[in-house]
Design brief:
about 375 residues; about 30% helix; 7-stranded mixed β-sheet; about 20% strand; alpha/beta; binds fe (ii) ion
Length: about 375
């Protein structure tokens, strides 16, 4: 076996590790900082490093072959050689850690979720073709049905159907026809109540078409919304006014009661960490007899709800990881918990969190991660 070949493989491994490392750092420490222009520029730069860094690293291993450990330009500069070796070891180590963790998860299999069943139905939008469509699932909508047994809701609200939509990110690529398609596929299932968990648009200029399309949403028990980080960045007051104009209920850190079949449903909305009222969760009731639904743009709030134990928490924000690799799954998840709450259902302390992959995303690229609308059916 030529020694150069081993170094070429090492270069590929280290390159992949550098990709994981850069995105993991961005996800945990940068993505959730308050939005500002410097933060956006820094975040985009790190995404650039995540793409270009591995290509350069792998390319250098390809060119230098077996000399890659002591490459010619660095051999006379001990500090530079140290930094080069540190980078290679960190990247290789990251690849090893990711691989071992995912292998462990794969061997353990999915966590048991008693009383929860998920069914996926493909409902792709065929009128438009996504950029880089051979790898991009931008319009491959999936309708996910989350069927909950009475044990998940304290025996309450049998027969209730809740529709969940999140992260429209309406913009130049995710145009309103795709949003309307997603809305119609969900409304076909006749939800009683609708939950919208934020990130309406990327830029102010898309607000008009977005809220025009959202006029189609109707539900007999009402439509409840929270705003996401992009909404706080774009125009929080303007979006609140538009939500009010549609007759929806904006749950800006508050709880409301909704009558249902002689009983009531408690619906709370959390806008932290972006809202000003994030310090206290006093507006949330403690574990109640009634079915308690919480809307939170980010799943990062879920562990803070441990003492309150709501029956169901609906979130978006992660876009399901958006860019996913075979075996490794999502690699970019804007969460301080890394990839833990990337997508799907999670059961902790008798509370169920469901993280939707959302309808839109930003930038407009989805690999191995379809967009979704969700119907929660209480059996
Ligand atoms: Fe989002």
């Amino acid at each position: 076996l030529p020694i150069d070949l081993l170094f070429w493989v090492w270069g590929a491994v280290a390159g992949l590790g550098l990709f994981f490392l850069t995105l993991a750092f961005t996800s945990r420490f940068i993505c959730n900082l308050p939005d500002s222009l410097p933060k956006a520029v820094f975040e985009m730069s790190l995404h650039g490093v995540a793409v270009l860094g591995p290509l350069i690293l792998g390319g250098l291993f390809l060119v230098w072959g077996s000399a890659a450990w002591t490459p010619p330009p660095f051999s006379t500069h001990p500090a530079e050689l140290f930094l080069w070796r540190f980078l290679v070891i960190a990247a290789t180590g990251t690849f090893g850690v990711f691989t071992l963790l995912d292998l462990k998860k794969w061997i353990a299999g999915p966590a048991p979720l008693p009383g929860v069943e998920v069914i996926s139905v493909p409902r792709p939008y065929l009128e438009e073709s996504a950029p880089l469509s051979f790898v991009n699932q931008l319009y491959d909508l999936e309708v996910r049905r989350l069927r909950l047994s009475p044990q998940r809701t304290g025996g309450k609200c049998s027969g209730l159907r809740i529709g969940h939509l999140t992260d429209f990110h309406l913009g130049d690529f995710l145009s309103d026809p795709f949003l309307r398609h997603s809305i119609r596929r969900l409304l076909e299932l006749e939800p009683h109540l609708l939950a919208v968990t934020g990130d309406f648009v990327n830029f102010t200029r898309h607000l008009d078409p977005c809220f025009e399309a959202l006029k189609e949403l109707k539900a007999p028990l009402g439509i409840f919304a929270v705003r996401g980080n992009h909404d706080y960045w774009v125009d929080p007051e303007g979006i609140a006014k538009r939500i009010g104009a549609l007759g929806w209920t904006l749950l800006h850190d508050r709880t409301v009661s909704v009558p249902w079949a002689g009983s009531e449903i408690l619906v709370s909305g959390i806008e932290s960490p972006w809202s000003q009222a994030w310090e206290s969760l006093e507006f949330l009731p403690d574990r109640t007899e009634q079915f308690h639904l919480v809307l939170s743009h980010t799943p990062d709030e879920f562990p803070r709800l441990r003492g309150k134990s709501p029956h169901l928490v609906l979130s978006g924000h992660t876009h399901g990881g958006q860019i996913c690799f075979p075996f490794y799954g999502p690699v970019l998840v804007p969460s301080k918990f890394g990839r833990k709450y990337a997508r799907g259902p999670f059961l902790e302390n008798d509370s169920l969190l469901y993280v939707s992959r959302g309808i839109g995303c930003y930038p407009p690229l989805r690999t191995l991660c379809r967009p979704e609308v969700t119907l929660i059916e209480i059996l």
